[in-house]
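name: query_chain
kind: protein
chains: 1
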Amino acid sequence: MVEGMRYLFIDFEFTMPERNWKGFYPEIIEVGYILVENGKIIEQFSSFVKPIKYPHLSKRCSTFLKISQQQVDEGITFQQMLEQLRKIQSKNALHIVTWGNMDMKVLRNNCLHTKLPFPFDGKEIDLSMEYKRFFGNQNQTGLWKAVQEYGKEGTGKHHKALDDALTTYQIFKLVEKDKRYLKKPKPATIGDVIDFSKVLKQHV
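structure:
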């Protein structure tokens, strides 16, 4: 973690189609994020978001995500969510960290369909790819499987946006710690090996 840099750990949940839905594309229905600076969480946010293309959730979506129609109906609009995200971006340089690349893909696609500007211009980090490269895995690992491989448990409930964002941060810290362990120590200088003060005393 770069000192002074702000990191946004963010997760979205999306709509899922019924078989006869024409022109379907996934829409964000829940957002959760934490903002981290100098290793401390300085802000966190969670909200349901109203979908536009298909405002009524499919049964499959409600069952899988355990999100009710009422929760979504009482959520913020997509535009309000973008305004919330822009507030973060407008302050300082930002790294946006997600588990997988779907979150940013769907966000970009939703912005395209609504003709609203994408809220971020910071560096995007797909932590699942970092995890894959770091451990030399052939396949990408699921978020909660990754944290369990560390002998830990995820925060809260899987497929709950804020909990998944917190779990992503948890894995990020574990991987960063392992990276520090693997850094090669600086080669010792002759001054580290020999105490010159003792050598000089012997020759006085």
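note: Residues 99 and 127 are 5 Å apart (CA to CA).
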